[in-house]
Write a structure and sequence with these properties.
It contains eight helices and three strands. It is an alpha+beta fold and 205 residues long. It has a domain of 89 residues. Strand 1 and strand 2 form a beta hairpin. The longest helix is centred in the C-terminal third of the chain and has 23 residues.
Length: 205
């Protein structure tokens, strides 16, 4: 599928803009400035639209290509602020720190936690990776996911609605997942966000 058909700008420009925003702690205006310094004049609102569109595409492709071994996983919720109001992000990661699933909700309650757990359980079953659950409540075991929340929470000031926050976080989780996988495999030298996005989307370098 050609995800760039009909776009005014070349795919390389779009990939760089989306990659910079999702990977680094930058605003849309700051990404606009970086592109302008390279002779590319793109409005920050256009970059915003690209991020919203391609975050979901990247997340779908990442989930499709990376079906990890779910022998051990951690689930937790964290809070983020959207237009001055607290919302709750439920996240699950595997033993290697790779994100299994995320769910952004307005409320933090038993019903929301159960619904997220049930959805994750169904996903594991659908790909034949679930056998049984052993619930462990040792506190230190959740340190990994609690530390993993930090990059998401750092971007709180940029979230303007539940819908846009959900899309943006999916893109951020995807690029962080790619980075963490490269780190685990010892292939971080020469890491390039743009190159990794092209590989994920099946675009020749």
């Amino acid at each position: 599928m050609n995800h760039f058909k009909g776009k005014q700008f070349k795919k390389d420009v779009i990939i760089v803009a989306v990659g910079y925003y999702l990977r680094y702690n930058l605003s849309y205006h700051e990404v606009q400035e970086l592109l302008y310094d390279r002779g590319i004049n793109v409005c920050h609102t256009t970059i915003y639209r690209w991020v919203q569109e391609y975050s979901k595409v990247l997340y779908y492709l990442w989930k499709k290509k990376n079906r990890q071994s779910f022998y051990s996983w951690k689930m937790d919720e964290t809070y983020i602020k959207i237009k001055g109001r607290w919302h709750y992000l439920y996240r699950a990661i595997d033993a290697d720190g790779l994100t299994l699933d995320i769910w952004l909700r307005k409320k933090r309650d038993t019903q929301a936690a159960y619904a997220f757990l049930k959805r994750l359980h169904k996903q594991l079953q659908s790909v034949g990776l679930y056998t049984k659950t052993e619930h462990r409540t040792v506190k230190y075991l959740n340190n990994l996911i609690e530390q993993d929340h930090r990059p998401i929470k750092r971007r709180n000031k940029f979230y303007q609605s539940l819908r846009t926050a959900s899309s943006t976080i999916k893109g951020m989780e995807t690029l962080r997942g790619i980075y963490k996988k490269n780190r685990r495999n010892g292939t971080l030298f020469g890491f390039s966000v743009s190159t990794e996005i092209k590989v994920l989307m099946g675009i020749p370098a």
